[in-house]
Structure to design on (340 residues):
């Protein structure tokens, strides 16, 4: 009897240890950054320094938007992680805990890329090129998956069409299908909606949301800042090869965003009175509108003081409302500040 109890206790302890190990492994998987970049540098043969000491971690399952002007280094950064461009010595690239220098083949299978440029096999059919892309990464044929993928991108009725006969928007859809054909864990979208129609943009962002819900990590660059504002969980801003900010979208907009109090005046003002200059008001709309900027994080916004001062000056207003800085305004301000 004692032996049976001992055996049961031992088995129970072993089961608990296995369970704890599985929990620890799961927590490690969730908490480990899916992309880890440390001291990333890239100087091209021409002498152009595209990236300078970039360190960045992208979390598993998030949508990360990388913003910056043309030539800032966005495409170079993506190309390095995707194995298209080689980083300078000393750069550290880890994907899913794997070192790119040692395990680049395994890493490439985990990544999908939709590049800026349209480069498709013009004489191939849509179905053939997507199936080829899937096989290229060693994935077994899966007709049902490919069919659903093409249907999601409104390409199923074009499956037998040669790519050279498709419109630019349809070719962009094919590029997305090719990037997703091998079911990657990480998807890079480099200006994916540049020059495409509204319908494709809507379909693509719907698919991005679906992919994120399945645990796929999305990294995108875009010139449409409203897209980043709508889609991204975190945002990085890059300028002249350097990251100048990386922040959660909500935190970024709370920290750097400002609110404006806009007052529509009863009568136009020729100028702002000297007694009101301490509020740094802006006179706009031919003197019919006053704008007051205030910090939402401050203990006192100053709105009450402004309205009291206007009343003392005999300045009446017929309407007032507030508006918040958009991500585009924050982005422009960040670039201007980093340039000074």
């Amino acid at each position: 009897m004692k032996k049976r109890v001992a055996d049961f206790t031992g088995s129970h302890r072993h089961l608990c240890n296995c369970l704890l190990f599985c929990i620890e492994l799961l927590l490690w998987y969730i908490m480990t950054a899916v992309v880890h970049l440390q001291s990333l540098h890239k100087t091209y043969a021409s002498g152009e320094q595209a990236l300078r000491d970039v360190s960045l971690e992208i979390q598993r399952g998030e949508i990360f938007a990388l913003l910056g002007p043309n030539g800032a280094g966005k495409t170079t950064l993506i190309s390095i992680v995707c194995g298209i461009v080689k980083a300078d010595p000393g750069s550290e690239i880890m994907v899913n805990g794997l070192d790119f220098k040692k395990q680049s083949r395994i890493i490439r299978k985990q990544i999908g890329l939709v590049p800026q440029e349209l480069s498709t096999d013009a004489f191939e059919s849509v179905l053939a090129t997507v199936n080829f892309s899937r096989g290229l990464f060693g994935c077994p044929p899966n007709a049902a998956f490919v069919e659903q993928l093409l249907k999601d991108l409104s390409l199923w009725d074009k499956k037998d069409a040669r790519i050279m006969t498709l419109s630019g928007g349809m070719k962009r859809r094919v590029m997305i299908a090719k990037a997703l054909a091998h079911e990657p864990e990480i998807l890079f979208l480099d200006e994916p909606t540049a020059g495409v129609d509204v319908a494709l943009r809507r379909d693509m962002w719907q698919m991005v949301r679906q992919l994120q819900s399945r645990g796929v990590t999305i990294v995108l660059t875009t010139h449409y800042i409203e897209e980043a504002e709508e889609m991204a969980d975190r945002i990085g801003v890059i300028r002249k090869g350097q990251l100048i900010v990386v922040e959660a979208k909500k935190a970024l907009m709370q920290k750097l965003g400002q609110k404006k109090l806009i007052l529509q005046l009863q009568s136009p003002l020729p100028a702002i009175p000297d007694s009101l200059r301490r509020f740094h008001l802006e006179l706009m709309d031919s003197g019919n509108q006053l704008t007051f900027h205030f910090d939402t994080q401050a203990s006192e916004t100053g709105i009450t003081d402004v309205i009291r001062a206007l009343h003392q000056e005999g300045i009446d207003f017929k309407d007032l409302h507030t508006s918040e800085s958009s991500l585009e305004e924050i982005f422009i301000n960040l670039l201007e500040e980093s340039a000074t």
In short: DSSP finds eleven helices and 14 strands in the chain.
